[in-house]
Design a protein that fits this description.
By secondary structure, this protein is of the alpha/beta class. Helices cover about 35% and strands about 15% of the residues. The chain has one domain (about 10-385): Alpha-Beta Barrel (TIM Barrel). The strands form four sheets. It has an eight-stranded parallel barrel, surrounded by four helices.
């Protein structure tokens, strides 16, 4: 494994510290969405021209810097071979513009989207806010994306390899278009999945974003069953998962676990962003001057961590040990990653923590997981899932 990533020189981490760390230490300064878009614009070009010698060399060095390989980290879940359990959550690469290069950042998988059938601008700006002290973010983006047809064009342009023959797993996260009624939501999801399903190793039904009016009503067991049945009838339907909200009541979580089991879903992703403010109601959002308690949008990052673990443990208890769970929400260290896996997650995803910690977070997590597996005498990551083994 070489030297610990925290103590050795890391070119990607050096770049991050030089250009981003100071910005992310404050709520104000460069707008969070504009900063994200600058990064994505660069990644889009790199992905398209990744075979040019200079860019290929850059990506090779990045891969050496950030990837960690160990047979103990590998798993096969719902027919997909994951080289490691750390993924990039949906919401960052909404349009799939860097689909071909996320494995170079050390991820075992990436979830693209959320994509909708209709292209949409999303909610009015500003709509993404840093909460630097809390290592958190507030977003009310509203599924802004270029639409399913444009994503197909984007993926074709990158000439990515088909499922089963590429370096890392690609999931696609699908949402309901804002202009589509709940009655016609299954058709809306189905149109997107039918167009893009052949690109996906797995697909996710996003019924839990708080930023599309009425969307969370699709978490109702009757509505969700109707949606799942519609999608499962598609010839192009890959393994199907559902992403749920952290704000559900225990009874609703139990119902969802039952639906997932009875309808043969491939897994559940827990959790999306939260409408709860976790004691931060009076915290002022600097850009608006208003307290967080009256601001619209979903909260992500460190404050979400305790609730995300609660939901995961309840799902594991009620869904049984065989249904794969993906843990997301507040994972920003090797310890928090281990905690989520031992609570029942077969895979984990990072987003807000990855933004604040930088690209070095992925190899730090992977090295930490390998260390814990060795200390506990586990032969594979699968042995640690749901074990409640402590961090040593």
């Amino acid at each position: 494994m070489g030297n610990n990533s925290q103590s050795r020189f890391s070119s990607s981490n050096f770049f991050y510290k030089q250009f981003f760390e100071k910005i992310l230490e404050r709520d104000d300064g460069i707008d969070a969405e504009k900063l994200t878009q600058v990064v994505l614009n660069s990644l889009e070009k790199i992905s398209i021209y990744r075979k040019w010698p200079a860019i290929a060399n850059l990506l090779t060095e990045l891969e050496k810097d950030l990837q960690r390989t160990d047979a103990k980290l590998e798993q096969t879940l719902f027919g997909c071979n994951f080289k490691n359990p750390v993924g990039l959550a949906a919401g960052f690469d909404k349009n799939g513009i860097a689909a071909a290069i996320w494995n170079n950042f050390g991820f075992g998988f990436v979830e693209l989207g959320t994509v909708t059938w209709h292209a949409q601008l999303g909610n009015t700006r500003p709509r993404l806010f840093r909460l630097a002290k809390e290592k958190a973010a507030l977003n009310r983006m509203g599924f802004n994306n270029r639409g399913a047809a444009k994503m197909k064009e984007t993926l074709l342009k990158q000439k990515i390899s088909p499922p089963g023959s590429r370096s890392s797993i690609i999931g696609l996260n699908f949402g309901k278009s804002k202009i589509t009624s709940l009655e016609h939501a299954p058709d809306d999801y189905a149109s997107s999945l039918e167009m893009l399903g052949s690109f996906a190793d797995y697909a996710v039904i996003n019924v839990s974003s708080p930023n599309t009016p009425g969307l969370r009503q699709l978490q109702d067991s009757t509505q969700l069953r109707r949606l799942i049945k519609k999608l499962r009838r598609l010839a192009s339907c890959p393994p199907l998962l559902v992403k749920i909200a952290p704000d559900l009541e225990d009874r609703e979580i139990d119902d969802l676990a039952k639906v997932a089991y009875e309808e043969g879903l491939a897994g559940i992703i827990a959790v999306n962003t939260s409408l709860d403010r976790f004691g931060l109601e009076k915290r002022i959002v600097l850009q608006t001057g208003k307290p967080l308690g009256i601001e619209k949008g979903g909260l992500s990052g460190k404050p979400l961590r305790p609730r995300a673990i609660e939901v995961l443990r309840r799902l594991r208890k009620n869904a049984g040990k065989d249904l794969p769970l993906i843990g997301v929400g507040g994972i920003d260290s090797p310890e928090s990653a281990w905690e989520r896996i031992t609570a029942g997650a077969s895979l984990i995803q990072v987003y807000t923590g990855w933004i604040f910690q930088g690209p070095i977070l992925v190899p730090q997590i992977l090295e930490g997981l390998i260390s814990q597996l060795n200390r506990h005498g586990c032969r594979s990551i699968a042995e640690a899932v749901g074990s409640e083994l402590p961090w040593k």
